[in-house]
Structures are given as structure tokens and as C-alpha cells.
Write a structure and sequence with these properties.
about 350 residues, alpha/beta, D-Maltodextrin-Binding Protein, domain 2, 9-stranded mixed beta sheet, 3-stranded mixed beta sheet, 14 helices, 12 strands, about 45% helix, about 20% strand
């Protein structure tokens, strides 16, 4: 972990703060929760930054087709769940499923919406995007601070032809209550016994090293501005921001590129039929071509909302997204849900219809 001078830290902090403020203002103007309008032609949601690239595309397309506005604020899974619990929004989006007992106590329902991948991203000018290989064990050691230079023998052993810089690694992690973090650390816990014992799982853990950034937007900004940094982010964000990403070794021992095919391969291994309220994670999936850090975004909604018209409008939007919105999803390398799972979701909706 490099040591920054006080002056450098202040300068970096000011620069990043301005960048993040600009991002946050842009998001608030387009998808702000605060400007909620009580009307049947608008629905409001908040939560996962992971799903924002495709949800924003869906919102634009759905508005053009139906006239219904879908206002969504990308504030992180934990904050989105808090908003829907407080009845400030019509739905929350989260990459960490809620337990059935919690859903029952809240009077909420939960269903999956789309699947994508979480990738390690780096600022390494000398390394071609998508060429650096990581094992889960090496990633765990980097994020624990055990591996702290890019030319460490453990990284070099996986990348014998790469010219690795003799530079310290700066770890960047999500500082907010994040579903992306939840899936990332769940994966590291499954691979590394030391990570599991000392750090564990959760949407917000006590990171042993590194700098915290809020949201996927904050992570992308930090990594772009900090040479030799590493973090983790949803794949569509890495593409949009033109971030260098690495390959991750899967359960079968293969180094798999993040793409639609490898996300679908991981999704194919999931057995949703036995998952009560769809409480299931896809990390470290079986399969030769399965991407190992694949995640699902879940929608959380009240079973019986105060505004029945808006509740029905939200459900109509998700029906459209699961069927007619798939071209936008696949264009961004999000994997659409299989038809069998969509039918399971529809049956779940029917079983949880509001009582008259």
C-alpha cells in the first residue's frame, strides 16, 4: 500500500470530490428520488449501481413506447433497500437477496431481474486490457494487502509473458453498502479460507487495506485517476469507462473472459427451483466456461403498496423488461433470465398479488 503525502492526498481528494459531485448531480437530475411525482405515469426506484447501465436503457426505451417515466437513482443496494423499506420509492434494486424471513416481516416480495459479471479493473498502462490473469487466491491476497506490488511472484507466475511494473498496488473498494461488494467478498470467502476467517462476508466489510469510493461511479473515477490501482466493478461499467480489466480463473481452472456467453454459462448452472423468494447467489459456479464472479440484481417491492396504480405500473415495467427489454440487456453483456425462470417469476407474482 503506497504512502501519499498530505498535500497529494488533499489534491487528490479535491479532484475526486469534484468529479463525484458532477456524477452525482448528473444522476440526480435524470433519476432523482427527491422529485417524485405522485402519478400513474411515473414510477420511482433506487438502489444497485450494478444494474444502472441496463436499467437506464430500459427506462428510456419504455418511456418512448408507453409514456411511463421510470426514475431510478443509482445509490447502492443497501441504500435502495432502505428507500423501499421507508416507502420513499416504488421499488428497490439490490444485488444481495433478502432472506425470506425479512421479506415476510416487511411485507415485501423479491425477484431476479438480470445477470451480469463483476470484474477486477486496474490502471496499468503497460498491460493490454483483458490480458492479465488472476486466480481467486491472488485477488484475495491483493485485497488483504499480502500482495502489494504488481511484480509480485504470485502475479508473475500466472502471467509469465507480461511485463509487470515494479510499483505498489493501490486497492480501491466500495465505501458504501454495496451489493457489488457483497458478491465480490462472497466469492473471495469461498476461495480463500484466510479471507473468510479474518474479513468474512457482507455488503460492507472492514477492508484491511485501500481507499474507499462511493458507488460504481466513484470506483471508476478513482481507478482512472490513480495509476497502479485495482478495484472491482460491474462489467458494463468497465466497458463504458474504458477501464482495463483482468481474467479470473473459474472453478474448472480456466481463465474466463467476462462476456455475455460466460455470464450465461454461470447462470445455466443455477437451480432457482429450490430457492425460496429467489434467494440465490451465482458466484463460483460450475462449468468449463462459467464466469466465476457472476451476480444477479433483485427487485424488492411491497406486496401491497399504498398506491395500487403505481404498484401495478412498476410490475408492468418489469414484465416488459423481462420479455421485450432483452436486446438492450444483451447489448451491454447482461445475461437475460432463462424463459423457465421468467415463468417462475410470473407464478410468484400471481401468488403474491395484493389482496383486494
Amino acid at each position: 500500500m503506497p504512502v501519499f503525502s498530505t498535500i497529494a492526498s488533499k489534491t487528490l481528494s479535491k479532484t475526486l470530490s469534484k468529479t463525484l459531485l458532477t456524477i452525482c448531480l448528473g444522476l440526480s437530475l435524470s433519476f432523482g428520488v427527491g422529485n417524485r411525482v405522485e402519478a400513474a405515469d411515473e414510477i420511482v426506484g433506487a438502489g444497485s449501481t450494478f444494474v444502472f447501465p441496463v436499467l437506464s436503457k430500459w427506462a428510456d426505451e419504455y418511456n418512448r413506447k408507453t409514456g411511463v417515466r421510470v426514475n431510478y437513482q443509482s445509490i447502492g443496494s443497501g441504500a435502495g433497500i432502505a428507500q423501499v423499506k421507508a416507502a420513499n420509492v416504488d421499488f428497490g434494486a439490490s444485488d444481495m437477496p433478502l432472506a425470506s424471513a425479512e421479506l415476510a416481516s416487511l411485507g415485501m416480495l423479491q425477484f431476479p431481474l438480470v445477470t451480469g459479471g463483476i470484474v477486477p479493473v486496474m490502471n496499468l498502462p503497460s498491460i493490454a486490457p483483458g490480458s492479465l490473469k488472476f486466480s481467486g487466491a491472488v485477488l484475495a491476497d491483493i485485497f488483504m494487502g499480502k500482495i502489494n506490488h504488481w511484480n509480485d511472484p504470485a502475479i508473475a507466475a500466472l502471467n509469465p509473458t507480461a511485463t509487470l511494473p515494479k510499483k505498489p498496488i493501490t486497492v480501491v473498494y466500495r465505501s458504501d453498502n454495496s451489493g457489488t461488494s457483497y458478491n465480490w467478498v462472497n466469492y473471495l470467502s469461498r476461495i480463500s479460507p484466510q479471507w473468510k476467517a479474518s474479513i468474512g462476508n457482507g455488503a460492507s466489510v472492514k477492508w484491511p487495506v485501500g481507499l474507499g469510493a462511493k458507488g460504481s461511479e466513484g470506483v471508476a473515477s478513482y481507478v482512472k485517476q490513480m495509476p497502479y490501482s485495482i478495484s472491482y466493478i460491474e462489467y458494463a461499467y468497465s466497458k463504458q469507462q474504458k477501464l482495463n480489466y483482468g481474467l479470473v480463473q473459474n472453478k474448472a481452472g480456466n481463465y474466463v473472459a467476462p462476456n455475455l456467453g460466460s455470464f450465461q454459462a454461470a447462470a445455466a448452472a443455477a437451480d432457482w427451483s429450490q430457492a425460496q423468494d429467489f434467494n440465490l447467489l451465482m458466484v463460483d459456479a460450475e462449468g468449463e466456461n462459467a464466469y466465476p464472479i457472476t451476480a444477479t440484481t433483485f427487485i424488492v417491492m411491497p406486496k401491497q403498496a399504498a398506491n395500487a396504480t403505481r404498484h401495478a405500473a412498476a410490475q408492468d415495467f418489469f414484465k416488459w423488461a423481462l420479455k421485450d427489454g432483452q436486446p438492450q440487456a444483451t447489448a451491454l453483456d447482461f445475461a437475460p433470465l432463462p424463459e423457465s425462470l421468467v415463468k417462475q417469476i410470473e407464478a410468484y407474482w400471481t401468488a403474491n398479488q395484493p389482496k383486494p
